[in-house]
Amino acid sequence: MNKKRFGKNDLLLIGGLIAAAVVLFLIRGIFHGTAGAYVEVTVNGDVYGTYALKEDQEVLIRQNGRVTNTLTIKDGKADMIDADCPDLLCVHQRAIDKEDETIVCLPNKVVVKVVGAKQKSDLDSVAG
């Protein structure tokens, strides 16, 4: 009873599919998303502030009179560099700069999202 699980052609097919998936993943990573113009910071679902990515700055996010998160914008990228949450997952996320990328701090209910110039003007017209 010689049961062959995979033949040579099966292995070639699987290898080809894996290679195609890797190539598509790399292409998507290179060409995905356009550079954003602003980051919108929300705390507990409310807009805390909107900050230009072209302007290097440090944003201290305060809740209940104390700084809970520190966001740094430098060289067109936003990066959460400090937080007082226990797991610090938001600090370990990579810096963001493309539209719709986010950094989330669940314990502090802080969300940082990259938006484009068009989205920013839409927000201003709704809020204003």
Give the biggest beta sheet: 4 strands, antiparallel
Please identify which CATH superfamily of the largest domain we are dealing with.
Answer: N-utilization substance G protein NusG, insert domain
In terms of structural class, how would the helical and strand content be classed?
Answer: alpha+beta
- What is the CATH architecture term of the largest domain? Sandwich
Helix and strand sequence: HEEEEEHEEH
Report strand %. Answer: 35-45%
Terminal Cα separation, in Å?
A: 77 Å
Helix content: 25-40%
Q: What would the average pLDDT be, to the nearest integer?
A: 87
The number of domains is 2
What are the defining features of this structure?
transmembrane; single chain; 2 domains; four-stranded antiparallel sheet; alpha+beta; 30% helix; transmembrane helix; mini-chromosome maintenance (MCM) complex, domain 2; 128 residues; 3 helices; elongated
Quick recap of the structure?
With 128 residues, the chain is an alpha+beta fold. It contains three helices and seven strands.
Account of the protein in words:
The radius of gyration is 21 Å and the shape is elongated. The protein has helices at 8-31, 89-92, 117-127, and strands at residues 38-43, 46-52, 57-63, 66-74, 77-83, 102-105, 110-115. A 4-stranded antiparallel sheet has the order 2-1-7-6. The termini are far apart. It has 3 helices and 7 strands, in the order H-E-E-E-E-E-H-E-E-H. It has 2 domains: 1-32; 38-127, Sandwich (mini-chromosome maintenance (MCM) complex, domain 2). A hairpin with a 4-residue loop joins strand 6 (102-105) and strand 7. With 128 residues, the chain is α+β, with helices and mostly antiparallel strands.
